[in-house]
Amino acid sequence: MLNFVLCDDNLAVLNKLSKMLESIFMQNNIDASIGFKSTSANEVLSYFKNNSVNALFLDIELQSNFSGLQLAKEIRLINKTAYIVFLTGHLEYMLLAYKVKTFDYLPKPITMERLQETVLRMLADAKYSPKKYICIDNKNTIINQDSIYYIHKDGMKLIFHTDNRSYEVYSSFNKIQSCLPDNFVRCHKSYIVNIDKITDIEASSIILFDNHKSCCIGPKYKNNFLEVFNYGNYPEYLDGTNN
Question: Which terminus of the chain is more solvent-facing, meaning fewer CB atoms within 10 Å of its CB: N or C?
Fold first, then answer.
């Protein structure tokens, strides 16, 4: 799920933007939510320091001790990847805004059509990004690859176990494996694991993660998996086995 944060010193504008975004999420079946909104730059900065955020819609002229541009610079020190969209009625700020890796710039008053265009472009960018995100179904459910601990095959479903929740989708390993980077390796007929999340392996058969979860290593996949985990020798195919 994509987590959006909104910041504008005008509460009426903030609430209207929130409702517009929620309407866009619903109409386009986008797996996203507004995790936090505030008129305070300090509150937004604090939220960024303690939460995973995908997108920020930010008023460029905040009536506070620092401007939207200054807030964006501070956020870039702790979050290099979040999409930043600036809101303002002053076009002269446009060039300055792009210095903080801005995704888009929305002039006020914001229209539903222009806002939806930006959100859908953002979604497409996240969906097709080869490094950071993965779209796990046809309902625009996008998750950060780095947040995945392991993927469990349960009948016709795949369960993606992540930092903060699990996602269930009707799919197969064959469909999803081409979207995964090299650090995702098959360790069992029912499991693909993110080796970057592993904290320990017990008796060469039980994989432990730092979220206190675990999964098994299957005999068919054991040699190949341990070769990857111990030496970084990746197979040509994700589900390469010891034939």
Answer: C
Domain ranges of the chain: 2-128, 140-231
Identify the bridge partners of residue 204 per DSSP, sorted by sequence position. none
The domain 2-128 is placed in CATH, from the list 3.30.70.370, 3.40.50.2300, 3.90.25.10, 3.40.50.150, at 3.40.50.2300
Q: Which residues pair with 58 in a beta bridge?
A: 7, 86
pLDDT tens by residue, 102-146: 888 888 899 999 999 999 999 888 776 555 778 888 777 888 888
Q: What CATH code would you report for 140-231?
A: 2.40.50.1020
Q: What is the mean pLDDT of each run of 10 residues along the chain (243 residues)?
A: 92 96 93 93 93 91 79 89 85 61 88 95 76 77 88 95 89 85 89 90 88 88 83 52 35
Neighbours of 143 (CB within 10 A): 21
E-strand ranges in the chain read 2-7, 32-38, 55-59, 83-88, 104-107, 133-135, 142-144, 148-154, 157-162, 166-170, 184-188, 191-194, 198-202, 206-209, 214-216
Q: Tell me the C-alpha to C-alpha distance, in Å, between residue 196 and each of 103, 184, 242.
A: 29, 8, 22
DSSP state letter for 103: S
Among residues 68, 80, 73, the alpha carbon closest in space to that of 132 is found at 80
